């Protein structure tokens, strides 16, 4: 039930999961679970008429009052895709040890940028909130949503105050994860060099 964000009082109910390349969850529009309701729901999912169900907590009161802004599924796009700001988001899990180690560094980072008019430091519990456009596979994951373009850059640098500051201050250049295309090009160059070395 937790996987679907359901509480005991929500039962009986139904959900549907599509296991393809990405796992997708669906929730019916009605809480009725009669034969025709089930048939309509399943048919709607299979025909692509039912939108996927994404978990989201309610927007917490005072979510933007602290230096680290608290994002949930319901307010994420509005904040992260604000083209007038560089928005750094930590996707975390409450049980994650690495996330707990990062927390004081991230809080200190947010203190340094709290008066900035064009940098937002934010976090989102990715176990309780899901996004259609962003899938998180490990914790913590840090992404920069760039001012002006909304280009998303994954952070892969040192998880230190200075390492993350450089990432922000260089608009995501210093500490950026290598993109797959660049990795493929590097592998091709390495393969070509290995072939030359064999000759």
From TrEMBL:
<feature type="region of interest" description="Disordered">
    <location>
        <begin position="172"/>
        <end position="199"/>
    </location>
</feature>
<keyword id="KW-0676">Redox-active center</keyword>
<feature type="domain" description="Thioredoxin">
    <location>
        <begin position="45"/>
        <end position="173"/>
    </location>
</feature>
<dbReference type="InterPro" id="IPR017937">
    <property type="entry name" value="Thioredoxin_CS"/>
</dbReference>
<dbReference type="InterPro" id="IPR005788">
    <property type="entry name" value="PDI_thioredoxin-like_dom"/>
</dbReference>
<dbReference type="GO" id="GO:0003756">
    <property type="term" value="F:protein disulfide isomerase activity"/>
</dbReference>
<dbReference type="GO" id="GO:0005783">
    <property type="term" value="C:endoplasmic reticulum"/>
</dbReference>
<dbReference type="GO" id="GO:0006457">
    <property type="term" value="P:protein folding"/>
</dbReference>
<dbReference type="Pfam" id="PF00085">
    <property type="entry name" value="Thioredoxin"/>
</dbReference>
<comment type="similarity">
    <text>Belongs to the protein disulfide isomerase family.</text>
</comment>
<dbReference type="InterPro" id="IPR036249">
    <property type="entry name" value="Thioredoxin-like_sf"/>
</dbReference>
<keyword id="KW-0256">Endoplasmic reticulum</keyword>
<keyword id="KW-1015">Disulfide bond</keyword>
<dbReference type="GO" id="GO:0034976">
    <property type="term" value="P:response to endoplasmic reticulum stress"/>
</dbReference>
<keyword id="KW-0677">Repeat</keyword>
<keyword id="KW-0413">Isomerase</keyword>
<dbReference type="InterPro" id="IPR013766">
    <property type="entry name" value="Thioredoxin_domain"/>
</dbReference>
<keyword id="KW-0732">Signal</keyword>
<feature type="compositionally biased region" description="Acidic residues">
    <location>
        <begin position="180"/>
        <end position="191"/>
    </location>
</feature>
<protein>
    <recommendedName>
        <fullName>protein disulfide-isomerase</fullName>
        <ecNumber>5.3.4.1</ecNumber>
    </recommendedName>
</protein>
């Amino acid at each position: 039930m937790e996987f679907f964000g359901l509480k005991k009082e929500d039962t009986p109910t139904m959900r549907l999961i599509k296991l393809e390349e990405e796992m997708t969850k669906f929730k019916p529009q009605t809480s009725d679970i009669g034969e025709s309701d089930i048939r309509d729901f399943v048919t709607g999912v299979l025909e692509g008429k039912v939108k996927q169900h994404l978990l989201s907590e309610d927007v917490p009161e005072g979510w933007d009052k602290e230096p680290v802004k608290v994002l949930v599924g319901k307010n994420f796009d509005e904040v992260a895709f604000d083209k007038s700001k560089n928005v750094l988001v930590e996707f975390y899990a409450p049980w994650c040890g690495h996330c707990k180690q990062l927390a004081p560094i991230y809080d200190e980072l947010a203190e340094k940028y709290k008066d900035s008019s064009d940098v937002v430091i934010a976090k989102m519990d990715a176990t309780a909130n899901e996004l259609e456009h962003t899938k998180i596979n490990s914790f913590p994951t840090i992404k920069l949503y760039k001012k002006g373009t909304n280009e998303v850059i994954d952070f892969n640098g040192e998880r230190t105050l200075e390492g993350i500051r450089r990432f922000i201050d260089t608009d995501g250049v210093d500490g950026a994860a290598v993109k797959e295309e660049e990795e493929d090009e590097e592998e091709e160059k390495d393969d070509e060099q290995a072939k030359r070395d064999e000759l």
